[in-house]
Design goal:
The protein contains six helices and no strands. With about 170 residues, the protein is an all-alpha fold. It is elongated, with a radius of gyration of 23 Å.
Length: about 170
C-alpha cells in the first residue's frame, strides 16, 4: 500500500524588518507618552496657567530693571507672546490636539507593526495634526508657536521619512 501524506503548506507570513520594528517601538513609547502628557496637561491646565503666569510676572519684573539691554527688549516681546499662550483654554486646546495627534500616530504604528499600509497614512495624519495644532491654538505670529511647531515637524518628518523607507514591506 502506498502512503499518501498530505502536508498543508501555509503561506509564508511576511517578515517585519528589524528597522521597522524599532521605529514602531519608538513610536509606541513616544505616542504613549504624548497621550499621557496631553491628558495630564488637560487635567491640570488651570494650575499650570497660574504657575506660568506667576513665573512670567517674575521674569517681567527682572527685565524691567534692565530695560536698556537689547536682549531684555527681545525677552519682553517673547514674554508678551507667552503670556497670551498660557491660558487654561489654550492649554486645554493644545492638550486635546496633542492627544488626537498621538492617537493617530499610535494607531499608525500599530498598523505598521502588523505590516499594514494604512498605518503609514494614519501616522502622517497624526504628524500633520501635531505640526498644525500650535498654529491653530496660538496663532502664527508667535515665536514660541513657530519653535514648537518646528520641533514637532523635525521629529515627525524624520519618522515619516524613516517609515517611508520601509513602505515596500507594508501590504
Amino acid at each position: 500500500m502506498e502512503n499518501f501524506e498530505t502536508t498543508s503548506v501555509a503561506p509564508a507570513k511576511p517578515k517585519r524588518p528589524t528597522f521597522l520594528t524599532v521605529l514602531c517601538i519608538l513610536t509606541f513609547i513616544g505616542s504613549g507618552f504624548g497621550i499621557i502628557n496631553g491628558t495630564s496637561s488637560y487635567l491640570t491646565a488651570d494650575a499650570a496657567a497660574g504657575v506660568a503666569q506667576a513665573a512670567m510676572e517674575d521674569a517681567r519684573e527682572k527685565i524691567e530693571n534692565e530695560s536698556s539691554n537689547p536682549g531684555a527688549q527681545i525677552a519682553e516681546k517673547m514674554l508678551a507672546g507667552a503670556s497670551d499662550m498660557f491660558t487654561p483654554e489654550n492649554i486645554k486646546k493644545n492638550a486635546s490636539f496633542s492627544i488626537v495627534a498621538s492617537v493617530f500616530t499610535l494607531i499608525g504604528a500599530i498598523l505598521m507593526f502588523g505590516l499594514k499600509k494604512t498605518g503609514y497614512w494614519s501616522y502622517i495624519l497624526g504628524t500633520l495634526i501635531g505640526i498644525v495644532a500650535p498654529f491653530v491654538v496660538y496663532g502664527g505670529g508667535n515665536l514660541l508657536t513657530i519653535l514648537t511647531s518646528s520641533g514637532i515637524a523635525f521629529i515627525g518628518v524624520l519618522f515619516v521619512v524613516l517609515y517611508g523607507l520601509n513602505f515596500k514591506h507594508l501590504r
